[in-house]
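Dear Dr. H.,

I hope your travels went smoothly. While you were away I took the liberty of generating a structure for the chain from your last submission, since the lab meeting agenda had it listed for discussion. I wanted you to have the full record in hand beforehand rather than looking at slides cold. The sequence, exactly as received, is reproduced here:
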Amino acid sequence: MKRNTLTTTAKPYAMLGAGQLVSAIWKIDRRRSRATHRFNIYRSSARTGRVSQLLRPADVLDLVKLCQVLATTLAEDGCVPAEQRRSLADLAIKLDAITRTRI
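The corresponding predicted structure, in token form, is as follows:
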């Protein structure tokens, strides 16, 4: 089985969180084209330090908040194509409005 070289050799350039959900973002330099980004999402227990990719229904609001933070962070990265940055910034604004009115 081939190991994922992204997660074993590169450090994430950003770590984000909302509630117990955490996301790491990696920027991969493609040299001949634009950098590409990859991210993951996992649940982390502050009490035990354990992590899991299994989410609970109670995590949905934090997931929306985390998506808003991810969209904002990626929209501010100059390596993301301009059209995609605009879409992500628009999404971040919409998600922010949703999470502010739902809390």
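Two observations you may find useful: The radius of gyration is 15 Å. The mean pLDDT is 86.

With kind regards,
E. W.
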